[in-house]
Amino acid sequence: MPRIFTAIRFDDGFKSRLVALQDALRERGVRGDYCPYGNLHMTLSFNCENLHLLPEIRQAVSEVEFEPFTVTLDHLGTFAPKNCVIWVSVKEREAMTAIADRLRERLDAYGVPYSTLPFYPHISLVKRPSAIVTDIRIPPATARVEQIHVMRSERIGGELVYSET
Fold it and tell me: What is the pLDDT of residues 116-132, one digit of tens each?
Protein backbone atom coordinates (compact mmCIF):
# COMPACT_ATOMS: atom_id res chain seq x y z
CA MET A 1 0.00 0.00 0.00
CA PRO A 2 1.35 3.47 -0.85
CA ARG A 3 2.47 5.78 1.94
CA ILE A 4 1.99 9.53 1.78
CA PHE A 5 4.58 12.03 3.00
CA THR A 6 5.54 15.66 2.45
CA ALA A 7 8.99 16.66 1.33
CA ILE A 8 11.39 19.18 -0.08
CA ARG A 9 12.68 18.04 -3.47
CA PHE A 10 15.99 19.08 -4.97
CA ASP A 11 17.30 19.95 -8.40
CA ASP A 12 19.70 17.71 -10.33
CA GLY A 13 22.80 19.75 -9.46
CA PHE A 14 22.17 19.40 -5.72
CA LYS A 15 21.30 15.72 -6.04
CA SER A 16 24.56 15.11 -7.94
CA ARG A 17 26.42 16.40 -4.83
CA LEU A 18 24.40 14.01 -2.67
CA VAL A 19 25.37 11.16 -4.99
CA ALA A 20 29.02 12.23 -4.65
CA LEU A 21 28.63 11.80 -0.88
CA GLN A 22 27.12 8.35 -1.43
CA ASP A 23 30.03 7.45 -3.72
CA ALA A 24 32.50 8.59 -1.04
CA LEU A 25 30.74 6.34 1.47
CA ARG A 26 30.96 3.40 -0.95
CA GLU A 27 34.68 4.12 -1.47
CA ARG A 28 35.10 3.84 2.30
CA GLY A 29 33.53 0.35 2.14
CA VAL A 30 30.06 1.25 3.43
CA ARG A 31 27.46 -1.16 2.11
CA GLY A 32 23.73 -0.76 2.68
CA ASP A 33 20.51 0.43 1.10
CA TYR A 34 21.50 3.60 -0.74
CA CYS A 35 18.74 6.04 -1.53
CA PRO A 36 18.30 6.07 -5.33
CA TYR A 37 18.99 9.34 -7.15
CA GLY A 38 15.31 9.91 -7.95
CA ASN A 39 14.29 9.44 -4.33
CA LEU A 40 16.72 11.92 -2.71
CA HIS A 41 14.67 14.45 -0.72
CA MET A 42 14.11 15.92 2.75
CA THR A 43 11.04 14.54 4.51
CA LEU A 44 8.95 17.08 6.43
CA SER A 45 6.22 14.70 7.62
CA PHE A 46 5.22 11.07 7.26
CA ASN A 47 1.47 11.19 6.98
CA CYS A 48 -0.42 8.03 6.41
CA GLU A 49 -1.43 5.20 4.15
CA ASN A 50 -4.94 6.62 3.78
CA LEU A 51 -5.17 8.03 0.30
CA HIS A 52 -8.60 9.44 1.13
CA LEU A 53 -6.84 12.14 3.20
CA LEU A 54 -4.96 13.52 0.19
CA PRO A 55 -7.27 16.54 -0.21
CA GLU A 56 -6.71 17.54 3.42
CA ILE A 57 -2.94 17.03 3.12
CA ARG A 58 -2.80 19.11 -0.05
CA GLN A 59 -4.85 21.86 1.60
CA ALA A 60 -2.60 21.88 4.67
CA VAL A 61 0.50 22.10 2.46
CA SER A 62 -1.00 24.97 0.45
CA GLU A 63 -1.45 26.96 3.67
CA VAL A 64 2.21 26.77 4.74
CA GLU A 65 3.68 30.07 3.64
CA PHE A 66 7.37 30.86 3.63
CA GLU A 67 9.80 32.97 1.67
CA PRO A 68 11.96 30.86 -0.65
CA PHE A 69 15.50 30.42 0.67
CA THR A 70 18.70 28.54 -0.02
CA VAL A 71 19.97 25.54 1.94
CA THR A 72 23.60 24.46 2.14
CA LEU A 73 24.93 20.99 2.93
CA ASP A 74 26.50 20.87 6.39
CA HIS A 75 27.69 17.56 7.90
CA LEU A 76 27.10 13.82 7.95
CA GLY A 77 25.37 12.21 10.89
CA THR A 78 23.52 9.06 11.82
CA PHE A 79 20.44 7.81 13.56
CA ALA A 80 21.80 4.76 15.32
CA PRO A 81 21.64 2.05 16.43
CA LYS A 82 17.90 1.55 15.87
CA ASN A 83 16.75 2.38 12.33
CA CYS A 84 20.32 3.17 11.41
CA VAL A 85 20.67 5.77 8.66
CA ILE A 86 23.61 7.85 7.48
CA TRP A 87 22.35 11.29 6.51
CA VAL A 88 23.54 14.76 5.63
CA SER A 89 22.15 17.85 7.32
CA VAL A 90 21.77 21.41 6.09
CA LYS A 91 23.04 24.56 7.76
CA GLU A 92 19.58 26.17 7.70
CA ARG A 93 18.12 23.86 10.36
CA GLU A 94 16.05 26.59 12.01
CA ALA A 95 14.34 27.62 8.77
CA MET A 96 13.57 24.00 7.86
CA THR A 97 12.27 23.28 11.36
CA ALA A 98 10.00 26.34 11.19
CA ILE A 99 8.47 25.04 7.94
CA ALA A 100 7.97 21.57 9.43
CA ASP A 101 6.35 23.10 12.54
CA ARG A 102 3.95 25.18 10.42
CA LEU A 103 3.10 22.13 8.35
CA ARG A 104 2.33 20.10 11.47
CA GLU A 105 0.06 22.90 12.74
CA ARG A 106 -1.88 22.84 9.46
CA LEU A 107 -2.07 19.02 9.40
CA ASP A 108 -3.44 19.14 12.96
CA ALA A 109 -6.06 21.67 11.85
CA TYR A 110 -7.32 19.21 9.22
CA GLY A 111 -7.12 16.16 11.46
CA VAL A 112 -4.40 14.51 9.38
CA PRO A 113 -2.27 12.03 11.33
CA TYR A 114 1.52 12.21 10.99
CA SER A 115 4.58 10.84 12.73
CA THR A 116 5.19 12.85 15.89
CA LEU A 117 8.89 11.99 16.09
CA PRO A 118 10.96 15.13 16.58
CA PHE A 119 11.86 16.77 13.27
CA TYR A 120 15.55 16.95 12.43
CA PRO A 121 16.27 18.34 8.95
CA HIS A 122 18.31 15.75 7.10
CA ILE A 123 18.59 13.95 3.78
CA SER A 124 18.94 10.18 4.09
CA LEU A 125 21.82 8.76 2.06
CA VAL A 126 22.06 5.11 3.15
CA LYS A 127 19.85 2.94 5.34
CA ARG A 128 21.19 -0.01 7.31
CA PRO A 129 24.86 0.83 6.60
CA SER A 130 27.48 -1.86 7.20
CA ALA A 131 29.66 0.74 8.95
CA ILE A 132 29.20 4.20 10.38
CA VAL A 133 31.35 6.71 8.52
CA THR A 134 30.72 10.42 9.07
CA ASP A 135 34.16 11.99 8.54
CA ILE A 136 33.83 12.59 4.80
CA ARG A 137 34.40 16.06 3.37
CA ILE A 138 31.10 17.64 2.37
CA PRO A 139 31.14 19.07 -1.16
CA PRO A 140 29.91 22.65 -1.46
CA ALA A 141 26.28 22.50 -2.50
CA THR A 142 23.24 24.73 -2.23
CA ALA A 143 19.63 24.29 -3.25
CA ARG A 144 16.68 26.64 -3.42
CA VAL A 145 13.68 25.70 -1.25
CA GLU A 146 10.54 27.10 -2.84
CA GLN A 147 7.73 24.66 -2.13
CA ILE A 148 6.56 21.60 -0.26
CA HIS A 149 5.64 18.53 -2.27
CA VAL A 150 3.06 15.88 -1.42
CA MET A 151 4.70 12.55 -2.21
CA ARG A 152 3.76 8.91 -2.47
CA SER A 153 6.03 6.00 -1.63
CA GLU A 154 5.27 2.59 -3.13
CA ARG A 155 7.00 -0.58 -4.25
CA ILE A 156 6.98 -1.03 -7.99
CA GLY A 157 8.75 -4.05 -9.42
CA GLY A 158 10.48 -4.60 -6.09
CA GLU A 159 11.89 -1.06 -6.01
CA LEU A 160 10.80 1.71 -3.66
CA VAL A 161 9.63 4.60 -5.85
CA TYR A 162 8.78 8.12 -4.67
CA SER A 163 6.54 10.26 -6.86
CA GLU A 164 4.56 13.44 -6.52
CA THR A 165 0.91 12.92 -5.92
Answer: 888 999 999 999 999 99
